[in-house]
Amino acid sequence: MEVNLTLVVITAGLMGCGVYLLLERSLSRVLVGLVMIGNAVSLAFLVAGGPAGRAPIVEDGVTTGISDPLPQAMVLTAIVITLATTAFVLAMAYRSWQLNGHDDVQDDVEDATVRRLALRDATSDAYQATTSDYPGDDSSGDAGQAPEDDPVVALHDERGTT
Description:
Elements: H1 5-22, H2 27-48, H3 70-100, H4 109-120, H5 151-159
């Protein structure tokens, strides 16, 4: 089977740019990234489907060179999913623009709490850690706590974010 290298490179480029844009804070960039990823997936399905063949209608019992209709059906499905996801993100971006005047995604209060607890390496009530859970523990009672001279903790203490 012969693969069109140009389509593979275009697919990889679209996928890479789409993932990069998807990781941005702005919902309009996320929207463009989703569209790029959707197009890359559609191209990937067509490349994986192989070369073009004859129509899948058999004439006189000859079955050689018939194209597979499954990749085309998968592309149609990917197009529908991309359209629905695009409509949803577009509605979210529009509503965010109406409420806030921008479409940047803000951090949740829960996200900030998790980040702060992770910097302190604090355990939650749901996970009752024992001193034997930490390798190299000397049972001094401060297992799992960040040392006072930790530069990350010191930086956050200076900023007052802990």
